[in-house]
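ingest -> validate -> predict -> emit
validate: passed (alphabet ok, no gaps, 321 aa)
predict: started
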Amino acid sequence: MRYRELGRGGMSVSEIGYGAWGIGESAWVGASEDESVRALHRAIDLGVNFIDTARGYGESERIVGRVVRERAGDEVLVATKVPPKNRRWPAPDGLDPAETFPGEHIRDSLETSLRASGLDHFDVLQFHVWSDEWVGRGDWLETVGQLKQEGKIRLFGVSINDHQPDNALALVRSGAVDCVQVIYNVFDQAPADALLPACEEHGVGVIVRVALDEGGLTGRITAGTRFPEGDWRNRYFRGDRPAQVEQRVAAIVADLGIAPDEIAETALRFVLSSPAVSTVIPGMRTVRNVERNTALSDGRPLTADQLSVLAKHRWQRNFYS
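emit:
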């Protein structure tokens, strides 16, 4: 496993991290706690030292905390998230930070997460939505500073609204944030336009989520794909969206001259080819997925020619809406 710095905070993270939304047994159907625990332990065995969870991920914080406590001899870094007080995802324009992240709410949410996980601190605390309208307003920054002084968190970050990378540029340039989490993948390459260069310039770490487009960039989504009842992906991949994804992935495979089952590897290597990226956090609910994804941390980025081909496959859309 190779490691990168998470911004200027002096924290070294595995370039393949662990996205723990899917193991929370809420929005994703099919996870089992026993297999999730085995997957987490296997990830740590293979050098993964960064796990991303959230207060809103069902049982995820509890399961992650259990494994981290079982691995007390290993340095495992855990990031969690504070949901907005008004429970609105993503954050629309015109909200006052007192409605979303007042200091008392931030502290209460963190204390709840600490109790759920059984941990005494989190290495990264992130806001689960963000709007640049909140820079310089509200008491959130003061509260974050206090929590750092109390040793309850080490770094502060935000999870940028889906497909809105420029909506954190003011925050990045303000110096108030240590890291950002953003959607970045072969389809949504927009962060590379302004956000990633700004993060490099200002020493802000970058956590990449949805590198595989919720499964779209694995090659396993086809026109006939169906998900279990109650699985949120039925909404994400509704209508003719699976057929659209299948066609787009087929075009990438053809243009690169790769095998269809190499698309997931290519998608993760695409993300890691950016020097601005600190870690990528694919969801991994099984030992098999852990072993397959961690094997990609081998220092082999895509070539300039491959990246040039992939630049032509940008696909601006928002399946979350």
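The first helix runs from residue 33 to 45.
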